[in-house]
Amino acid sequence: MIFKLKCPCCNKKGCLKYHKSYDRHLTYYINNQLIDTTIGIATCVCTNCMNNNAKQKYHALLPDFILPFIMNSYYKIINII
Ligand SMILES: [Zn+2]
């Protein structure tokens, strides 16, 4: 599946490879209960950007309910608003 994704920097398909994963803190609501947990986030490296010595070669593969650089899930933010 990772081979079907486009690199967000160079827009080339088929050049992303799994790099490593890291733990990310996340809070969200389910049934009006606040859940505070940690989930694993996979990161990939773009071989095209690596060969062209681009600034950003590594990318996090975030699920759609997680916003970059924000601890709260998308659904928790909508619930607060
Ligand atoms: Zn790239």
Structure description:
The relative contact order is 0.23. This protein has helices at 47-51, 74-80, and strands at 16-30, 33-46, 58-61. It has one domain. The chain has 81 residues and is mainly beta. It is 15% helix and 41% strand. It contains 2 helices and 3 strands, in the order E-E-H-E-H. The chain has a 3-stranded antiparallel sheet. The model has no long low-confidence stretch (mean pLDDT 85). It binds zinc ion (ZN). Zinc ion binds at residues 7, 9-10, 12, 15, 46, 48-49.
Quick recap of the structure?
The chain is mainly beta.
Largest sheet: 3 strands, antiparallel
Indicate the structural class: mainly beta
Beta strand count:
3
Unreliable stretches covering 5 or more consecutive residues: none
How many DSSP H or I helices? 2
Count of folded domains = 1
**Helix and strand run:** EEHEH
Strand order of the largest sheet: 1-2-3
N-end to C-end Cα span: 34 Å
Summarize model confidence as the mean pLDDT.
Answer: 85
Q: Strand content of the residues, in percent? A: 35-45%
Instruction: Assign a percent range to the helix content.
Output: 10-25%
- Rg to the nearest angstrom? 15 Å
Ligands and ions found: zinc ion
Mass-distribution shape: elongated
Give keywords.
binds zinc ion, 3-stranded antiparallel β-sheet, 81 residues, mainly beta, single chain
Topology at a glance:
Layout: E1 16-30, E2 33-46, H1 47-51, E3 58-61, H2 74-80
This protein binds zinc ion (ZN).
